[in-house]
Amino acid sequence: MAELTERGRRTRQRIVEATGRQILAAGIGGTSLDDVRAATLTSKSQLFHYFPGGKAELVRAVAEWEGGELLAAQLPHLEDLSTRASWEAWRAALVDYYIGQGRWACPIGSLANEAAVGDPELAALVADTFRQWASRLAAGVRRMQGVGEVDAAADPDRVAASILSAIQGGLVLSQPLHDPWPLEAALDQALHALDAPAVRT
Amino acid sequence: MAELTERGRRTRQRIVEATGRQILAAGIGGTSLDDVRAATLTSKSQLFHYFPGGKAELVRAVAEWEGGELLAAQLPHLEDLSTRASWEAWRAALVDYYIGQGRWACPIGSLANEAAVGDPELAALVADTFRQWASRLAAGVRRMQGVGEVDAAADPDRVAASILSAIQGGLVLSQPLHDPWPLEAALDQALHALDAPAVRT
């Protein structure tokens, strides 16, 4: 794959994006190479030229690309998160990515289930995106702790995991309702961890 | 379907359970009627005798059965939740159902994505299980408020949604790691809403 022409790169990318859309709509199991060929008007030999490993390699390419897009959609806020305003801007960008742009599902989270049982290499890619994402959120929590905005006793990694879980789980609840309120309620609740140090009994 | 014999009920149930296992492992899209027939040693005509509507009807039967099992696994605690001890017992039963029993995924949550895009009737069944589940959690929050254990200002429905989201999202993060810590961290964080009334600034 080192020697793709510009045209080759575009074709490969077109295949990756079309497969990503199909997976979001029908799952990995519901996505066939025939569907992908039909959606991209490519031949079987073209598909295997770009993805010699077949469907498994293509799905991993989708996971890498979608993971990058998902993190990029949260920039520049995801790299800051040093103020409550930055968290709010990050939150708004994320809700727009999922709901405003009509995804109603996480392209990475929706791979987790099938990846975990079927493809350890894909599961590792999914876990890596979650790890990169959580490490930015945890860094933001530490910045907030550094300026006394967040309780110093909070564990940034656990706060980050609970925020990510609120996003993923909120989407699971929002999907069948086609209503963003569970996602927003879960995010609000998880972001309470950032409130000014609370006096707890 | 009103006139099944005892033997017919058992065969139908065997088909539902085998399909549920297949869906949890490979998604709806990755589950074919041929797989189900092979796993249950049933003929095509038997399958259509019990499920004249084919795969869609079978998947809905799975959603109804798995929804009932999921709620039953949380009894009797789910109908109580009037004390912190009852919440802890509920939490332990739930973690055992998902992790102890080796599921590592929610049989209902894992249907949400594909249901939302492919089958409105299935999406309604998934949403109904979430609604029944959330209403019990919200009732528990109200009981805790009634005895002054939870801040009266908390919205029980939003607290319930955030706890359910923590469960669903925690599972999404735990799956590819095959490690329960994100699920437990998310649940802990969401259950903080039940702590004795906090003085917030």
Automatic annotation (TrEMBL), chains A, B:
Which keywords does the record carry?
DNA-binding, Transcription, Transcription regulation
Signal peptide extent: none
Organism source for this protein? Klenkia taihuensis
This protein is called Transcriptional regulator, TetR family
Domain Tetracyclin repressor-like C-terminal: residue ranges: 88-188
Q: Which domain of life is it from?
A: Bacteria
Q: Which Gene3D superfamilies match?
A: Tetracycline Repressor, domain 2
What are the leading ranks of the lineage? Bacteria, Bacillati, Actinomycetota, Actinomycetes, Geodermatophilales
Q: Say if the entry is tagged with keyword Membrane.
A: no
Q: Which residues form the HTH tetR-type domain?
A: 15-62
Which Gene Ontology molecular function entries are recorded, alphabetically? DNA binding
